[in-house]
Sequence to fold (360 residues):
Amino acid sequence: MTDAELIRRCDTVFPGHRARTPADLYAAMAAWCGQQGVEHDVYGAGSLIESFEDKIAALLGFEAAVFCISGTMAQVTALRLACAERGNAPAALHPTSHIFVHERSNYQLLGHFDALQVGERTRPWTAADITGVPDRLGAVGLEIPMREIGGQLSHWEELEAIKAHCKARGIHLHMDGARLWEAQAGYGRSAREIAAGFDSVYVSLYKGIGGLGGAMLAGSRAFVDRAAEWFRRQGGNVIHRSPYIVSAAMQFDARLAAMPDYFRRTELLYALLAAYPAIRVNPAKPAANMLHVHLPVSRERALAIRTELAEQHGIWLFNRVSHGVLPETSYFELYVGDNLLAVPEARLREALTLFAAALT
Fold:
């Protein structure tokens, strides 16, 4: 039985949002298009996409935003333009930056920009990490929250100091805001407040929002226009972006409205996990509605436990699981969304008890 088949048989699913089949998703999109009178854009020109770009820009406090087919294209383009404007000085990135970890060295092989790994892999940036760089910097790319270390956030005071340093030195400050909407609850501040002081921000249309794919890049009108031209030069000029925009726009407001509920459910999960000391979490307290769960068993054993609980109890605990740093340990990422929100607290307690028993 495949993982997808197992998940469909489970009544209790921990990670993410409820998966919709293509037929269900496309039917919902078609109904929404009919209700809204949507017409296709043509190469990014159209009322739906332009109004949605304006909406994202306003939410983040920028002059403009533009759709990009992928966050990978959006971010390296933004950083390359910023560094080129500053004599091709390098960009400072955290060791766990998506650009380093998941993009197959595109910034190097495609000649986008030079990059420095700055800071410690296991903790978020402090201001000293940036102010201590002796080199002239063209850009600083900061992920909020930092996914690869469990969704941690730099302390607000440290973030404000980083903003002030970049402004004083003329360094372009770019945000990898793939999960920015999720960070609002952790900071207790709006996305606009968090983004204030950044020169550009990328947000995803599919991660927490649940769209088909795509991204938005926000910044000044001049910067966004230059980036849009480079998206076209790099093959990102899709004739109809409407499927991506519709799939995000039709659920965008509801997803943002649910973020506080996801965070509260994450806080509950932390409280319940405190009863099982063999299960460790990172960060120590919720910073967003995501976390890493560290287990005292090998990756192979963790997968076997997942299958056992799914088959015998209808519980699906996680999707991917990785080898831990120490022998016979493992960890998985958990994004708290609609699925866990729908689980009654009693059932959540039962699932965690069964999981902890299987681990020991």
The mean pLDDT is 97.
